[in-house]
Each structure stands twice: as structure tokens, then as C-alpha cells.
Amino acid sequence: QAQLVESGGGLVQTGGSLRLSCVASRAALNDNSMAWFRQDPGKDRELVGILGKGGSKYYADSVEGRFTISVDNAKNTMYLQMDNVKSEDTAMYFCATCRLWSACRLSKFDAWGKGTQVTVSS
Asked: Rounded CA gap, 72 and 65, in Å?
């Protein structure tokens, strides 16, 4: 099972920016679609975005135009750049793997990390 480690969370003001990182094995990045999802206690997980094996990307409507997924293969790291954050972006953020893009779209992840907390203050 892929080992994933998220970092970069913290406290940010509304309208500010934050960049999350997800360190994964090279095999995880090469063999899977990668995703970011978020979850608040007591709520369902919410898919944030997907990075496909071929580089294609998907973003949830709630973050489209504000969040950007990228990858640095030399560092085995996927990033989530969060700009113009809103209070509703407050959540624990996780990176995850899926063997298939379609599985990621259905939030059916194979592995995920322990998450990093993002708190947006007004």
C-alpha cells in the first residue's frame, strides 16, 4: 500500500494562500491517479481534485479557479496550491491514490495519508 505524507497545513486568513505537499513513493505517483480530498469531523469526505497518470486534472466546482494541483517528480511530491481561500475551505486535507481515474471521481481511494489541517480565519 502506498505511503503518503501530507504537510503544509496551518492557519490562514480569508483570501490568503497556502501550499500543501504530499510526499509519495515514485511508484505511487507513476502507477496511480492521485487525488486531494478534505473532510471535516462529522461530514462526508469531499473530493478536491485529481491528477491523472497522464497529467490530466480535475477540480471540484467549489475550488475551481482557486486551487491548483501540480507535481514535482524529482521530489516525488504532489502539491495543492490554495489561493483566495474561504472559510468553507477549513478541513483536514488528505492526498490519496486510486488505480483508476474513475475511482478517484467516485472518491474510492486505495490509500491515503494522515492528513494536514487547514483552518481559514476571517
From this structure: 21
φ/ψ of 82, rounded to 5, equals: -110, 115
- Residues 84 and 72: their CA atoms lie apart, in Å, by 23
Cα→Cα distances 78→13, 38, 65, 69, Å: 23, 15, 18, 7
CA angle, 10 as apex, 8 and 16 as ends, to 5°? 95
pLDDT tens by residue, 11-26: 999 999 999 999 998 8
Contact 69, 51 (CB under 8 A): yes
Report whether 100 contacts 108 (CB < 8 A): no
> Which of 20, 29, 15, 9 lies closest to 76 in space, CA to CA?
29
- Per the structure block, which three cell numbers stand in for 118? 487547514
pLDDT score, position 117: 98
pLDDT tens digits for range 55-84 = 999 999 999 999 999 999 999 999 999 999
